[in-house]
Amino acid sequence: SANATLDPLRYCVEHPDINRIFGENTGLEITNHRSYAPAYQKNLLSENDKNQPASFPHLEPFNFSSLAKSKPFILHLPKQFLLTGFRKIVGFRRLQNGLSYDVEEEMHENRHIFHATVKDPITNEVFSSGLGKPIDIELRCGVSLATPLHRAEVSILDGKVFYHDPKLAEHAAASRAIDCYIFREEGADTNNPRLCLEDPYTTIEECISQEIDYTALLVQRNHLSEDEKNKSIPVPDKKSTFSSCAKSQPFLLHVPKSSFELNTTSDDNLPALTFQFNDKPTKVNNKLSTLGRIAELWTDAADIDSSNGATRSWTTKSTIEYDIENILDWYDRVNLKPQNHQEASALAQLCNKILTALGKRNSELHLDERGSYINVEKNAKIILDKIISLSKNYGDKSFLNADTFNAYINCLSQLDCTRSAKLAKDLLKNMVDKEVCGDMAEAQWSSLFRGTSKFSSRDLPNPNVGTFNAVMALCAMADDKSGVNDVYSLLEVASLDDGEGRSLRPNNDTFKTLLAVNSKIDDRFSFNLATDKIQQLADSTCSEAFIPDADLYSAVFSLTKKSRADSKANRYAKSWEGEWLRYGCQYEGGFKSVDEFSNTEAMDMEKWLLYAEDCGVNPNVEMYEAVIQAWTETGTKYGLLKAEEWATRAVSSSSPIRLKTFHPIIASWALCQSERAPGRVKEWNRQLVAVSASQPHLKPDLSLLCSQIIAEVSVQSGIMARLGEKKQSSREENSAARSIENDNENAIAMEALFAGAQNCVQFLEEMSLVESQLESPQDTAAYTSMFTHTIRAWGCAARFAHLNMTSESLDESRGVSEMLEIAQLFQSKINGDKSEQQAQHIMHLMGESYAEIASQLYQIDSADEASCRFCENIAHVERMLRNFSQYSRKHFSQNSFTPESKATRHRLYKEILRGCTGVISETDHDHVVRVCNLIMDHLSWQNEQCHDSGGARVEEDITSLYVNIALLMGTVVKSPHERMHVLTTVHDNARQFFAHKRRFRTSSYATVDRSRLMGAMRMAMGGSELTEPFIRNFDEQTPKRRVQEKTAMSYVHEMLRKRKK
Questions:
Q1: Which partner for 631 in 557, 643, 842, 897 could form a disulfide, CB atoms 3.0-4.6 Å apart?
Q2: Cα 122 to the chain's mean position, in Å?
Q3: Model-wide pTM > 0.70
Q4: What is the per-residue burial (b if ≥16 Cβ within 10 Å, else e) of 1025-1055?
């Protein structure tokens, strides 16, 4: 209809001709596509006028000019400004992957240079990179280019502007397009600033006809850049700052910052030095030694991560643990005695930076998914004492400032947060009011700084806002809500006190902690409390610095998620094997029943995210992840489906999604035991692989792909559990009909179990183990999980087939043979040449797989005493042990003695010895003896290598291995005399691991408790009359005093003694 009035029978707010803006095949010309009014406005008709015709409400037309006036600061990010405008015009879904840029690369003077073009998504018009110019627009932290376009290096070739960075070239193309769009909307009289020096144009023909003198423009660009540098920055009037801000930018009072300010950080959190696009050269203190200068640069780096996970040996240490070790190592290297004041000043600055880096990493420990906690408080105290001593010895108070103590507070132990919070609050009170607290808190002071001479509480510096934030953060970790609020009240009072020029203002970190702590009831997030608290903060006396953004809204979830510990989750988090599975631990055992209480927190989090959107905030990825995780924590199918809905919504949002976003959903499906779970997991991985074509960071890693095998094994566990429950309930019924029904159910279960195991093998074959993929511990752990879960799948099928024979083709022998075939996959790896790192990873994979096979064979035998699958395949087990021993000796390295690698070896030995206890046939006793000798021989070899390589002393108890060997010998060796001989061999092999009074004689590989071993040997001998005499032979005898040999020196000493007499 051409009628401009609002027809009551129309379903949509848009005019029927609105399709023109989308360029659809309507036969209509695309006109005025810049003035489209968004159709998302609500409540156009009141409740009383629903049945009455209504006039179309007046909507301000949207265009690029209006966006430049409402949010001019976004012009500092031209690409983001252009994308925002087009998304408002054509909708987000059409531009979900952003605008289309084409980058041209050339070589000029041996350097790569770049020219870009951007395409209009509606008209397909193309805009080229322009020559950027300075713009006089408010600059907000986090909403600017690291190198502005007018300061970037450029080259002009063939009338094109080339930049030395492809991203800057894209921003320059977006700038040219923005200039043209605004020029077409408002003409030459516009008050909006131009981003490029070139004149804008209206049509393509006009663009082609333009003659641009880039030589003159480059001269103009240089003059403008110099003028900008010489401009003085006006200092705002403190008395009128809040009121003027409220008048000029009232949205700051109610509307949070846009999504382009998600990375905003306060000056207090900025690192002292970064290596990214600095206008000024990096300054290095020449008064330091070479190592000191290196350490200074290293500690100033934005991301202290000198240990790349891809190059580490097999270990469970987290990145944060590695970084802390490196920080402390640097301090040990540079801790030298200065010779003069200049050297002392340089060393004090370096120690401050090291302490800051240590505090930063220690404060991040609570975010570590591995659940690692270490105590650096004593180390931090040593560094702080060093700074204090330098300050006192050289009489320079500038060595010590508030940031020094902020860093020390961040280093306080997180193993006892309550104690650390109390110490931090005591220190803050001393810093705030030194005159009052100096005399009355000496006991507290001595507990904080025991051993620090010539330093009293009066020497403390005045606190800054970082001090209050550090103390509040510790109180929050200790769940001390009143402590957080008390510290904030102290900050409010201090912020009003300008008597000594100590004007303090809370920043966003302050409000994050305050909001997070006051948004919980019984450790659960409450929407009502959160909304009340955020309104209270907006109305408080310190609201000048209160600018709600996505980071602030997401902060309420951080403490809620971390404060609740779960034993199942910890089991996954402390292992390299699928640590992301901890997100789905609530689904172990199947879906839970739905109840109102279980969904309360998830619904509140959902409402909070929607509330943030209503306030104008674009939720960040942390908010979406918190809602997704909250729904999966319900353990219900409804919650899992809701989590999938929110994941889909997150993908369609403007937030940068990461692979971690999908971990809770995939983990929940993998562990829920639903028969549809494997297919669902496969579909999620397939979708992520498809999306990764345009967003490589979303490509599933090996650990996530392993979820398909885990889902198959989980389904098997569910089948076994359900059959067990039915079997228990049917014991009371002995009818023939019930027996036939059970047989049918067993037959169906048998097929499902074997099909699941076969699916695991098929997926394992598709992955096709490639040694080049075993470069990192994470990938090795993923392959280990795939292999061990596949072995468990066949073990489960074999156990069920052994107890419920329903098919000749699906019997336990097939399951056993399939497991042994997996062991054969490593045969080709034995003699190949590998790098040291690959060899250690293959050895871990081999050891865990062999141990799992031995364990499954033993479990099959345990299901029925008449079965002895381990006995029947003991020759294969012995071959696996020999292969593992051979590979270990060939590829020996220091990494062989990490706690993780030794745990793998000892688990293999333990599982094999446990399986040997079921060997009944006397013909296989020789195999058992040989297996035991192999294990003892390999342990002795490892002990020798550990001694030779100077390994550190490790108190690892392997007594159980030798005890089990001794008890086995008592079973398989029938003759008492032969038994005494083999037990003597066991004792002689274990002797090297006994504890000795002289420490240097004790093994650095492991220890064996001699008394426990002797008790096992006594049991192995049984009731034989030879037992007691045999045991007495091993009783320790007091060594006789060594007779001094007659030497020339002894003769001299003897003659001297006689002469004295």
A1: 643
A2: 40
A3: no
A4: eebeebbeeeeeeeeeeeeeeeeeeeeeeee
